[in-house]
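Chain A, query sequence.
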Amino acid sequence: AIVEAEGRFDFIYIQAPYSETLTNLLQMISEPYNTYVDESFWSVEYEQDENVQKHVVQPLHYQNIEERNNKLEAVSFSGQYGDKVSPKLALVHPNFKGDVVYQGNSELTLSGEFGKEFKPIASWQNNLVYDKDKVIQIWPEFDIDGAVELQYTFRLIQTGADGALIEQIVLTDDMLDSPLEIPAKPFDAYISVTVKARGNGTVHLGPIHKRWSRLDMGQFLLGGSRFVDSQRQEFIYYFHPGDMKPPLNVYFSGYRTAEGFEGYYMMKRMNAPFLLIGDPRVEGGSFYIGSSEYEQGIINVI
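Chain A, predicted structure.
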């Protein structure tokens, strides 16, 4: 009755001690992964409750009240969103004299001597969009052959006539093992991207992905996950426990230019466990083909 009257809840936050009345209510209104209990109320009773386990209810951890409030504001939104800028829209710096090969939406390959100091090698014609009130996750695809170091610069430029520079973030390749997350701000902005390099070898610059972040609560959806191989190639996956009985249904997303999960509601109607898998690479996916590590990762997840 509550769901019929109010609609599906995107996020449920509990500040109350365990009780059977509460968990019986959760059975009616919770979806897997969308319910969190304040850590100060989390207990063994919560951990052992069947409804809590079925809906993957988890404790919400935080260091202070400000962090808690920021976290709740950051993840309490409907839907999902992700896009990218293609390497075919990257402009090679005119001072770079090495070999340049554009490989469509897959990568821009630069080979040669980059110098002893960091020097610009490429910038993107198109900016990413920073959406206000969202934590924005950035994941640049790149790979390196030889003794080359990269340095990415992300500049937040406020929309409007003045186009003021708000913030500049400079990260070397070894600092990008995890996605960059830009905290939520109360205004829209653009994110420009430039890359510098030093050393000698070959650089493979792929797309730069932008997503609405769920912080540590999931990728795209609450409970969503991502796999990334040693070449920074990704796939995303989401497991829904359904009725917790066999068989497991696996859905691979087809061609999809927007990044995120596909087929959620269709699979949910089957009321059985299901696994969604998506390929956010290139333009619309890359047929789930990759390194042996990448392909084995898909098998392992299933």
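Residues 218-301 form one domain. Residues 65-75 form the longest helix (11 residues).
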